[in-house]
Amino acid sequence: MKYFASLIFLIFAINLSAQEVDDKMTNVKMWKILHEDIDDVQGQMGNWQFMVRERPVVIITDVSANRMRIMSPIVEQKDLKEDHFKVMLEANFDRALDSKYALFNSIVWSVYTHPLEELTTAQFRDALEQVVKLSENFGGSYTSTDMVFGGGN
């Protein structure tokens, strides 16, 4: 009986381990999700560009560093008003949630970063929506979802 219980535990542990491997996000899995959800995806494995609701979106992955990034350009820095920086930083604290405002190469971006392998399909789809929504809401509510963390001011 003890042998049988040990065998059951071993089978369960192997199954759980195999499931963890299957659940890891990869470039291939991400590519499949994108092609299920997006009409016209351009680029190559680990570097994609496409449009969502008239917003350009770029996704890049770095398998060796186990990182991924979803981003959408919003506005050139030279076109920002003085109070935009303060409002963007405040939004990053309570309204932007998982996506954030960032400045790179004199362009304001909506950005989501995450470890690649640990990213779930649901998180990936949610992150993509948050990045697009944060871009759309720049200059208005500065939100990435309908939720405000901590209730705002």
User: Spans of 5+ residues with little confidence (pLDDT < 50)?
Assistant: 16-21
In total, how many beta strands? 6
CATH architecture: 2-Layer Sandwich
Helical residue percent? 25-40%
Terminal Cα span: 62 Å
What does the main sheet amount to?
Answer: 6 strands, antiparallel
Explain what the structure shows.
Mean pLDDT is 88; it is low at 16-21. Helix content is 39%, strand content 27%. With 153 residues, it is an alpha+beta fold.
Report a brief summary of the structure:
The chain contains four helices and six strands, in the order ααββββαββα.
Write the layout of secondary structure elements.
Blueprint: H1 2-23, H2 27-37, E1 42-44, E2 47-52, E3 55-62, E4 67-76, H3 84-94, E5 100-104, E6 107-115, H4 121-136
Antiparallel strand pairs: 1-2, 2-3, 3-4, 4-6, 5-6
Question: Key terms for this structure?
Answer:
single chain, 153 residues, 6-stranded antiparallel beta sheet, 4 helices, 27% strand, globular
